[in-house]
Write a structure and sequence with these properties.
Strand content: 15-25%
Largest sheet: 7 strands, mixed
Helix content: 25-40%
Number of helices: 6
Structural class: alpha/beta
Order of helices and strands: EHEHEHEHEHEEH
Strand order of the largest sheet: 2-3-4-1-5-6-7
Length: 211
């Protein structure tokens, strides 16, 4: 079955952040049927996740405005509460958010509160969250939200301060990464440097035909 953990992906424009997110989501779709895994997408700029739209696992349309994002998360929260009452957690639902900082800025407290609820309580109900952002600062992404991301994939950042906030550890070296798929995996205060794989649009289309 599906096993997904909460995580966030950090990296600048051109650093491979959306590509890494797609590369993580696509194998989940390949190895799990739509009956076992559903994917919900929030993508304000419709550039990060547009290629995933054709996967049969994708639930509804891509939410590309704060209003659509709020509506989608309300549906997921209602589903979470239903599952809590009925003590079920299947099928797994994965909510993927691109441009998290932008969404929080434009959507305000309503978006922040819903992301917090899903991040804190969704996992036991089989609802998981992966969020991407290019600006890992406390001014843009509340530390209470980042505390709920035990797995962090961090690409090149602009400074040591951003590196510390993004990774949650001191002297990670994330500000020295080269970009273009060069990432750190941070889990339990340990870091592993890796080069992200690439899954192109044709690969995603082929996977969509096979599942």
């Amino acid at each position: 079955g599906v096993e997904v953990v909460l995580g966030w992906i950090v990296g600048p424009t051109g650093g491979g952040r959306p590509a890494l997110a797609r590369t993580l989501l696509t194998p989940l779709a390949l190895y799990n049927s739509p009956a076992d895994l559903r994917i919900a997408l929030i993508d304000p700029k419709r550039r990060g996740f547009e290629q995933l739209r054709g996967l049969p696992h994708v639930r509804g349309e891509i939410a590309d405005t704060p209003e659509c994002a709020v509506d989608l998360m309300r549906q997921l929260i209602a589903e979470m509460e239903r599952r809590d009452r009925e003590r079920v957690n299947h099928p797994a639902i994965l909510l993927a958010i691109d441009e998290l900082a932008d969404l929080l800025q434009t959507g305000g407290k309503a978006v922040e509160a819903q992301i917090m609820r899903l991040a804190q309580r969704g996992r036991e109900a089989g609802i998981h969250l992966v969020a991407c952002t290019q600006k890992p600062t406390a001014a843009l992404v509340n530390s209470a939200i980042t505390a709920n991301f035990p797995i962090r994939l961090v690409g090149s950042v602009a400074s040591k301060d951003e590196a510390r906030y993004a990774t949650g550890i001191t002297d990670s070296g994330a500000e020295k990464l080269r970009g273009k798929g060069d990432f750190l995996l941070i889990a339990k205060s340990e870091s592993i440097r890796f080069q992200a794989a690439w899954v192109g649009e044709e690969d995603i289309q082929e996977i969509g035909k096979r599942v």
